[in-house]
Structure prediction request, 427 residues.
Amino acid sequence: MSAAPAAPAASSAPVVVQKYGGTSVGDVERLQRVARRIADTHRAGNRVLAVVSAMGDTTDDLVGMAAAVNGRPPQRELDILLTSGERIAMSLLAMAVEALGVPARSFTGSQAGIITDAVHGKARIVDVTPQRVRDALDEGRVVIVAGFQGVSRDTKDITTLGRGGSDTTAVAMAAALDADVCEIHTDVDGVYTADPRLVPDARKLDRLSFEEMLELAAQGAKVLQVRSVEFGRNHGVRIHVRSSFNGSEGTWIVPQEDMVEDAIISGVAHDTSEAKVTVVGVPDRPGVAAGLFSALAGATINVDMIVQNVSSAGRTDISFTVPRGEVDEARELLAPRLGEIGAEDLVVDPAVAKVSLVGAGMKTHPGVAARMFTALSAAGVNIQMISTSTIRVSVVVADADVATAVRAVHDEFALAGDAVVAEQGAG
Ligand code: ADP
Ligand code: ASP
Ligand code: MG
Prediction:
């Protein structure tokens, strides 16, 4: 028996979007606890839209099963398969909320109006048409939306938004509904100065600018998917990252102008999801790099760091990093062109990690990179590649060194203790 619709929440009631990650709904008991939080938020007079991820390791398990039946699963089929994880969670969660006497309705991404481009596995949201969701909210129901998925307007096929994509579903729904807040409920208390699983004395940040969160997320701090931060910044969504297990205040992601103080360094991120590719013995002449990277771009392979060595005897090496999952494709694409390019060899090293230091105050404080490199060398960590932006310094190191490197950098900038704060208006 389903709960009778409650008196419709006034259409002026605040809209709260809450996203619950996989660990937060890891088993039936946890899912019921999430249902209670949702029901409580509804009863407190809010209109609630909850976005839910697949339970526990479901997505990984589905990826594993796909790989077992086909070494290269067709992307279209893989996407449909993966969205089923979130569909299980959404319907169970709606049932659990109804069991508490609060009317609820679940929707797939497609039903909720999440329209994407047609790039399977990493589709971008191009539009949100949330009429059914609005109607359900106007009927006084809690709405549950399956995260991480949408539908392509062109191909009509179901797409996924990339790993961690439920964050982006939540922020996109919050933008479309002009929600008061987008709460990202996860398994840590907020955004920390480093991954608290790697650095136990990492400190929780109360506030962080979109700019800094964008860098941290792009450099591997998977607490928020990078596209969710982009979306939030572009649409002015108030994002609150907090624990799904307790009620404590988490981390607010805010516009730069709302930062009370500028930390020189906000945090350290690490990423072990990339592989390094080196094209050896490339002739040092115009057009070679253009040819290499156009080929990769044509296959929508995301190239991250690029380093070209100084040439000797008219030849040079070009190294770059790509997602590990795309490295075979990159190799297959480039290997047949080596002759054409005039390169000698192609070497792949999957055992690398990227460690990045991020902070808006870096712009006005020289010497940060030097301190970071000195700390790494003191810890015995060899640097293979370097790249920088105005608010970031990144290095590629051996995979085996990642924990040592992150801790050394975190220690060097005293991120565990009191914040390193730049004076207001300095620079
Ligand atoms: P969810 O399933 O809720 O989406 P994720 O596993 O995607 O959760 O993201 C939360 C995880 O992100 C944390 O458990 C933590 O290990 C990791 N993480 C990495 N960097 C950070 C950071 N700087 N602050 C907080 N968590 C981080
Ligand atoms: N279930 C998907 C993943 O594991 C999406 C998400 O959790 O955000 O990546
Ligand atoms: Mg996540």
Notes: The chain has two domains: 15-187, 260-427. DSSP finds twelve helices and 20 strands in the chain. Confidence is low (pLDDT under 50) at residues 418-427. The longest helix spans residues 75-98.
